[in-house]
Amino acid sequence: xxxxxxxxxxxxxLAAAAVSCSILTTVVVVNRVGGLLAVxxxxxxxxxNNNDDRSPSQLQQSNNIMTIGHNRRRLQQVKHxxxxxxxxxxxxxxxxxTPSDVTAQLQDxxxxxxEEQRKxxxxxxxxxxxxxxxxxxxxxxxxxxxxxxxLSVMDIWDLDKDVAYFWHIPKASGxxxxxxxxxxxxxxxxxxxxxxxxxxxxxxxxxxxDTTSPDGLDKSFEVRDQIFDMGVDLIVSNYFLAGAALxxxxxxxxxxxxxxxxxxxxxxxxxxxxxAKWERTYRKDWNKITFADYAKSENYIANWVxxxxxxxxxxxxxxxxxxxxxxxxxxxxxxxxxxxxxDETVRQLREYFGWKEKEPFCAYNxxxxxxxxxxxxxxxxxxxxxxxxxxxxxxxDMALYHFALELFAGQREMIKMVKIYRDGAQ
Length: 426
Fold this sequence. Notes:
The chain has helices at 3-22, 40-49, 56-63, 68-71, 104-108, 115-126, 174-184, 214-222, 224-229, 240-244, 262-273, 291-296, 304-310, 320-333, 342-353, 362-368, 385-393, 395-425; strands at 74-84, 87-97, 163-167, 189-190, 201-203, 206-207, 234-237, 253-259, 334-338. By secondary structure, it is an alpha/beta fold. The strands form three sheets. A four-stranded parallel beta sheet has the order 7-3-8-9. It has a three-stranded mixed beta sheet with strand order 4-6-5, with no helix packed on it. α1 runs antiparallel to α18, α13 crosses α14 and α14 packs parallel to α18. The longest helix is centred in the C-terminal third of the chain and has 31 residues, at 395-425. The radius of gyration is 22 Å and the shape is globular. The two termini are 18 Å apart. Mean pLDDT is 77; it is low at 1-74, 78-88, 97-102 and 149-155.
């Protein structure tokens, strides 16, 4: 170990000691859920011995939380020989493959759907790509967001090759934040802006590749090394798992997101989608119904955030295990922002990533003078019948949102340690 590295460990260790004394936020203990398929048979035996009234299929549903790498189209490492210049070397590549087994979520889909329709629904909802997972069943090529247990993990961050990954939750200040990252922090990102995707910068800082739709993600996966080689600083996707699949050994992702109160998102999405004719999710028919009608209908998809983090379709009933898994992913892999606190969110992101603002007050002006894609609409009253009904429907996302508030509060102190490391590494 070099003297420089030892010095860095010492600096980070002292910072951690100071931080640990100042953090007074609630500590949440999360049990790791993952790798459960291997113990499926043992659970069935234990259920019989203990008079567990869950059926084998119910036990299997419990086991399928975040087993993306085992059950659906997935990312796996494939070895082959690369022979160039008369010399052969074994090379490991990541390739998307489709396993022969029928997935549990396909089996649980509504019977009125054909198998092909079920596959298309899964692709449309989850994005169609699935990342390689580590031993804890978390996306392998996403960096840990914070060095919560082993401070030395910070020394493996590659500040030159790691790429920021913005998991864009709809109607949570994402459009405004993208403008801030582009025009205030001068970050290059991939986004399809001009006809067919192409490896060209068609607009200021925008590489003309689509990472937000299932078909676009497929194309981007095929050329992901070229995308990174074009110098993008940022990958943006609504699909957490599919977006994570774009990263690899050479270019790992450092993930962040902005969360908003689930009921506020539900209202904003409803009023936006019924008028946004330019969006592929436009719903003209929603102009004939009220928000209360929509909230009660079969079209309403509850707990979208937990489902995206755990790879769980709307027809699967969520449980405490899904929530605990979502908390684990959020805590370990995602730097959290809060839509109601965007000034503090942008400040933390700037400190966390080391972004430099091109002009003073640029971000402030975007947040307060000209926020993007705003959509004024009537609000339901907190405590009303519709509000209470949605609070019950969204109970898992509500719980995750409150957990995210705790993470956000803790980041204010932990980020000091990140800044000390980053400044010492430069």
